[in-house]
Write a structure and sequence with these properties.
heterotrimer; A alpha+beta; B alpha+beta; C alpha+beta; A: alpha+beta; Uridine Diphospho-n-acetylenolpyruvylglucosamine Reductase, domain 2; Uridine Diphospho-n-acetylenolpyruvylglucosamine Reductase, domain 3; Enolase-like, domain 1; 3 domains; four-stranded antiparallel sheet; 11 helices; 14 strands; about 30% helix; about 25% strand; C: alpha+beta; Aldehyde Oxidoreductase, domain 4; Aldehyde Oxidoreductase, domain 3; seven-stranded mixed sheet; five-stranded mixed sheet; 20 helices; about 25% helix
Chain lengths: ~290, ~160, ~800
């Protein structure tokens, strides 16, 4: 199918982009990488009257380390996540996750700003940002806002970004020496949307988890940071303790059913990912065997 | 404002200055306005990979890019890569191994394979399959394609298969 | 046994000096495909061409109350908006029945629906505009008022009295029923030592050709001639049908097919929207282009394989299988497809179940019922995947019942390699097959014992791998028994015209067609071999009803066996004619001469005598120098049709080696093997690649593919993200071996190979999964084998 007709404006600055969004409101859509927007428009699921192309805004590109934070411009592409030396040091979770995002040609265009603003519950980056305790930086007619990633995602394709705002950057705390990460997802084929996935950042001190931020995706209308992890902190994780945590996870999750998987299936896979995650973070493969 | 916009870009090394409607995607622009029909359209939702071209040296899905977004860029299609000889060894390998049947996925497959070979000298078979993971082929079942890419990599490295 | 030739002449044709037969030469003319310079219909443009977009029903079953196209007609770039009723003046409806399928009934189908739509996606109006985008814009403004009707969407209840009858004129929703009762089935079951049974459920599939269906129809009013550019597999069939329904003579219709971006049977049928496109061209007197987009393709390309088949097998303790019984049900669309009918697939299932085995007792019932879903018809391997999955699944169940190894039970029951010719209980006549030789070769290739040992070892570590075996037979080279006897104007013969041109090169016109399998190459290889001419000098013309002999085209794996034989015979005649002229020029005799390397040579010692280029110059430009009375003929045409056997059966066996993750339900395909016997192999690489491609389609069926309809008849996964086709990372490498049992029906001895891979791959995978899950006592007889299905069978969820 061919997209319905629309007007096109290439933003010359962030301010210019905001002015256009203010003027056109819900009738305008921001064009970033286009890898989610264009399929929807080609299928005529979306027919905005105006596309505001932010692709020329070089100020939204770049990965920098400053003031104790890693700052990634909204136009940072998934392919950039895989190649950036700074991200390799401070957010290896993103490097691991990026390999699962679609395919190389899509990663060359898709941006982190676009992915986060699109907020597909089955996508990788929203969960990763919460796991990394990221802050989403947005800019609007009233200036800049910083929104904790935990609060940013509010539903299927819904975020705290208003129609007049632009997501301009994502900030993460710098990595500390005992940071560890885990990423895995279940998808029918490489690059497909995940049935369920888990992104986690942990602080590992000796044989214990001093900090643990496991965030599931594909289990609901938004990424879900689970509290079932709480019982595993600052203690030796026994198989019993893990089983308890898995039972708590069972209660906490209420995943949806769709063509790919039933709620039960998603719940089951989520528990498998959780056990794998804990076992890998603590380098104790035996924790992952025969628990179910 | 839905009226045509002027764009200026390089296509296969030739300067193109023309006008396009905003909604015209890069694939349709190449095929219908420039008559470079080697870039194929298979789904228009970015899944099949048949529309793969290079923009500023990187492979992209031309059905998910607007022609206006290509303003100021350098676009290379299968015709350009063929005429320059850049992939003649890869094309020979495809021919020898019959790594194409109907040929519809082939331009994109060649683009994706060349993208891998430019960056990696010795991809193993799993790595080849991974880099081509977004390119659908219904005819070959993929094995011959992997064989041809593997053989090309080896030959480029100076070793004989 | 199978490698011996019975005709010495056959040996000489296939074994000539510098013969290409049996050689893996690269296909000629691949450059244009690899350089992006292919000639696909979807690329075509003609002057004054308009694009057609169809307004399609969102409902599975509804009455069309009103169509308001006034707004659409005023949209920019719109040339016309045409309804079904308006179009019916130009194109007549059709009924997809054939007389040899007794009792098959179907209702008339129009190019564009009139009064009622019967599946979600059926066209109700055509919008023609200067661009596809403009036509889509206008199509959005066409207002159609529907009165929804109850949709028939469950094949299991299609024949219940409470279920609405889709076509009241037909009386019920039963399109076709076939029953077969051979031998003494009840006695066999009564006397058996064990009985196994299961219901086998198959996902509905579609072909997903990467180039969608595309047509450019060009009516030249001044010449009163219609040229149809279309990627069809059967151009003469399209010519015949287009003429018939547009009230034209066949000579007024030309069908041209150049490069085709994949077909697999999808593009061998007559589609309503394509007939509408031809009619619109005639109506508007300008070229009309239709390219189905991907969503349309999912909703309107033929579907296939939507079956529920109950199967039973009777077996003795010593492993002897004594009977097969099936009750197959398939839900097609609201119309039987035209002209090949939607009953052939079920008919094939009945024909083929039990085929490789010696058991003589067989009972079958197959029922084909109408549904308010997309139409269904022949797709690669037609019916074979169902028959093979049911047969091979039952054989494994029988083996399990009596505690016998799956290979051992096959050894005891496959038809002996020296039992030919013979016939199956369903009446299939086998000329010469090689089930045992193929099985032995397969077991050696895969190191069966080694894999069993590895399986046992890994099981102790809770890693679950499985081996699945599937034997199969394959219909190829069909005679008129397939369609012609039923009244279809589908030719079962093919022809090749070959000539030596004025420069000593060869031009070949063949009625078979090319969709990437190598029809052009096999023709050039045969002609080059027989004529002693190098392949670079052989140009093949195909896919044009104005430029080729009349023939059937390429489908049902008939191109090599039938078209190849015609090429061989035509080239033989031309060689004789050339040698007659050469003898006259050289004052020798034809018996003393031969052609090799583009040159007339002495047959005794190969001494070159005169180049073909020179001979051609003399014939075409200096006939004054030839002996008086000599009228050289440097062109020959031969047709070929199989006469002895209704089908040339091939056989093969496949094996799958895979791992099932019993925690997640995911299946990893580790490796796949095929041993195939398709008679004489013209180009081993092309045959192997056909098999590989076919296998992967079967692997897709086994694990991924399914058209998911809801109870309202809505196809809910009509896009490439939700209908899962096999992609590179999930597919294994496939090893292939051959046994060669040529057919004596032709000098070439070639049977077909295009569909063998698809016939048995899903069966092998299903058997492998069940083999892997044996320790858990789980048996699954449904595909696709999704992780959810597997975990449910394992009671993990």
């Amino acid at each position: 199918m061919k997209a319905a007709a629309f007007a096109y404006a290439r933003a010359t600055s962030v301010g210019n982009a905001i002015a256009l969004l203010v003027e056109h409101g819900e009738r305008a859509k921001v064009l970033s990488g286009g890898q989610s927007l264009m399929p929807a428009m080609n299928l005529r699921l979306l027919a905005p009257e105006l596309l505001v192309d932010i692709g020329a805004l070089d100020e939204l590109r770049g990965v920098t380390v400053r003031d104790g934070l890693l700052s990634m411009g909204a136009l940072t592409r998934h392919a950039d996540l895989q190649k950036s030396p700074e991200i390799a040091v401070h957010a290896p979770l993103l490097v691991a996750a990026a390999a699962h995002i679609a395919h190389p040609a899509i990663r060359n265009r898709g941006t982190i700003g676009g992915s986060l603003a699109h907020a597909d519950p089955a996508s990788e980056l929203p969960a990763c940002m919460i796991a990394l305790d990221a802050t989403i930086v947005v800019y609007g007619p009233d200036g800049e806002r910083r929104i904790p990633s935990e609060d940013f995602f509010t539903g299927i394709y819904e975020t705290r970004l208003s129609a007049e705002e632009l997501l301009i950057a994502v900030e993460l705390p710098l990595a500390r020496v005992n940071f560890a990460h885990f990423f895995d997802e279940f998808a029918r084929r490489r690059g497909d949307f995940a049935m369920v996935g888990l992104a986690a950042r942990a602080i590992v001190e000796g044989d214990r988890l001093a900090g643990f931020r496991p965030v599931f995706f594909g289990v609901g209308d938004r990424p879900m940071r689970v509290s079932a992890a709480a019982g595993l902190l600052d203690t030796v994780v026994t198989p019993d303790l893990l089983s308890q945590a898995l039972r708590a996870l069972d209660d906490e999750l209420d995943p949806p059913e769709d063509q790919q998987a039933s709620g039960e299936m998603r719940r089951h896979l989520a528990k498998i990912l959780f056990a794998r995650c804990v076992a890998q973070l603590l380098t104790r493969p035996e924790l992952n065997a025969g628990w179910a | 404002m839905t009226a045509v916009l002027s764009i200026s870009l390089d296509v296969n090394g030739e300067r193109v200055e023309t006008r396009v409607f905003p909604r015209t995607n890069l694939a349709d622009f190449l095929r219908e306005q420039l008559k470079l029909a080697g870039t194929h359209v298979g789904c228009e939702h970015g899944v099949c990979g048949a529309c793969t071209v290079r923009v500023n040296g990187e492979i992209v899905r031309s059905c998910l890019m607007l022609a206006v977004q290509a303003d100021g860029t350098s676009v290379e299609t299968i015709e350009g890569l063929s005429d320059s000889g850049e992939i003649s060894d890869l094309q020979n390998a495809f021919r020898e191994r019959n790594a194409l049947q109907c040929g519809f996925c082939t331009p994109a497959m060649l683009m994706a394979a060349q993208d891998l070979l430019k960056d990696e000298a010795e991809p193993d078979r799993a790595r080849i399959r991974e880099h081509l993971s977004g390119n659908y082929c219904r005819c070959t079942g993929y094995q011959a394609i992997v064989d041809a890419v593997e053989a090309t990599a080896r030959a480029r490295k100076g070793r004989r298969p | 046994m199978s490698e011996s030739f019975t005709k010495p002449q056959a040996l000489s044709e296939l074994d000539r000096p510098n013969s290409y037969i049996g050689k893996s030469v690269p296909r000629p003319n691949l450059d244009r495909l690899m350089q992006g310079r292919g000639l696909y219909v979807s690329d075509m443009e003609l002057p004054r061409m308009v694009h057609v977009v169809f307004v399609r029903s969102p409902h599975a079953h509804a009455r069309i109350m009103a169509i308001d196209s006034s707004a659409a007609k005023r949209m920019p770039g719109v040339v016309a908006v045409v309804t079904g009723r308006e179009l019916s003046v130009v194109v007549t409806p059709w009924v997809g029945v054939l007389s040899h399928l007794k009792g098959l009934k179907s209702a008339p189908q129009h190019a564009i629906a009139i009064d009622r739509v019967c599946w979600q996606g059926e066209a109700v109006a055509a919008v023609l505009a200067e661009s596809r985008a403009a036509a889509e814009d206008a199509a959005e403004t066409v207002v159609v008022e529907y009165a929804e009707l109850e949709a028939v969407t469950d094949m299991r209840t299609a024949l219940d009295s409470a279920t609405p009858v889709i076509h009241s004129s037909l009386g019920d929703n039963l399109a076709f029923e076939r029953v077969l009762d051979a031998g003494e089935v009840d006695a066999a079951f009564a006397a058996s030592d064990a009985i196994a049974q299961a219901e086998f459920v198959f996902g509905r599939h579609t072909g997903v050709t990467l180039e969608p269906r595309a047509v450019v129809a060009d009516w030249n009013a001044a010449e009163a001639r219609l040229t149809i550019y279309q990627g069809t597999q059967a151009p003469h069939m399209v010519q015949n049908i287009a003429a018939l329904h547009l009230n034209l003579d066949e000579s007024q219709v030309r069908v041209v097919c150049k490069d085709v971006g994949g077909s697999f049977g999808i593009k061998v049928h007559i589609y309503a929207d394509e007939m509408a496109t031809y009619a619109l061209a005639k109506m508007l007197r300008r070229p009309v282009k239709f390219v189905a987009d991907r969503i349309e393709s999912f909703n309107t390309d033929i579907h296939a394989r939507d079956h529920r088949c109950k199967g039973r097998i009777a077996v003795k303790r010593d492993g002897t299988i004594t009977a097969f019984e099936i009750d197959d049900l398939t839900g097609i669309g609201p119309y039987s497809m035209y002209p090949r009918t939607s009953a052939i697939e079920a008919n094939q299932v009945v024909n083929l179940v039990g085929g490789p085995y010696a058991a003589k007792n067989y009972r079958a019932r197959a029922r084909v019922v109408f549904q308010n879903k997309n139409v269904m018809c022949q797709y690669r391997a037609v019916g074979h995947p169902i028959a093979c999955s049911v047969t091979e699944g039952l054989v494994d169940l029988a083996a399990a019942k009596i505690g016998m190894d799956p290979v051992e039970i096959r050894r005891r029951n496959l038809i002996a390699d020296d039992a030919y010719p013979c016939a199956s209980p369903s009446g299939l006549r086998f000329e010469l097959l090689s089930h045992h030789a193929s099985l032995n070769k397969l077991l050696a290739m895969m190191d069966y014992e080694g894999l069993r040992a590895e399986q046992a070892r890994l099981r102790r570590n809770n890693i679950h791998r499985g081996i699945g075996i599937a034997s199969f037979i394959e219909v190829t080279n069909p005679s008129a028994a397939f369609y012609g006897v039923g009244g279809a104007k589908i030719s079962s013969q093919d022809g090749v015209a070959v000539r030596l041109d004025a420069q000593g090169a060869v031009v070949c016109q063949t009625s078979i067609t090319e969709q990437g399998q190598g029809s052009e190459s096999l023709t050039a290889q045969i002609v080059g071999s027989v004529l002693g001419v190098s392949m670079e000098r052989v140009r093949v013309i195909l896919g044009d009803t104005d430029q080729t002999p009349y023939g059937g085209g390429t489908w049902a794996s008939r191109g090599a066996g039938i078209g190849g034989e015609a090429a061989l015979q035509a080239a033989k005649i031309l060689r004789k004619n050339i040698l007659d002229v050469a003898a006259a020029i050289l004052q020798s005799s034809p018996a003393e001469l031969d052609i090799a390397n583009n040159t007339i040579v002495n047959i005794s010692d190969g001494t070159p005598r005169i180049e073909l280029r020179e001979l051609a110059r003399i014939v075409y430009f200096r006939p004054d120098t030839l002996p008086p009375g000599l009228q050289p003929e440097l062109m020959a045409t031969r047709h070929f049709v199989p006469r002895q056997y209704p089908f040339a059966f091939t056989n093969g066996v496949q094996a799958s080696w895979l791992e099932v993750d019993t925690d997640t339900g995911f299946v990893k395909l580790l490796r796949h093997w095929v041993v195939e016997d398709c008679g004489t192999i013209i180009n081993p690489q092309l045959v192997d690649e056909q098999i590989r491609g076919g296998v992967v389609q079967g692997l897709g069926a086994a694990l991924f593919e399914k058209c998911i309809y809801d109870e309202r008849g809505q196809l809910t996964n009509a896009n490439m993200a939700d209908y899962l086709v096999p992609m590179p990372c999930e597919m294994p490498d496939i090893d292939i071996g051959h046994v060669v049992s040529p057919t004596a029906e032709s000098e070439l001895g070639a049977k077909g190979a295009g569909e063998a891979g698809t016939a048995g791959a899903a069966a092998a995978v299903a058997n492998a999964v069940n083999d892997a899950l044996k320790p858990f006592g789980a048996i699954i007889t449904e595909i696709p084998l999704t992780p959810q299905l597997i975990l449910t069978a394992l009671r993990r969820i």
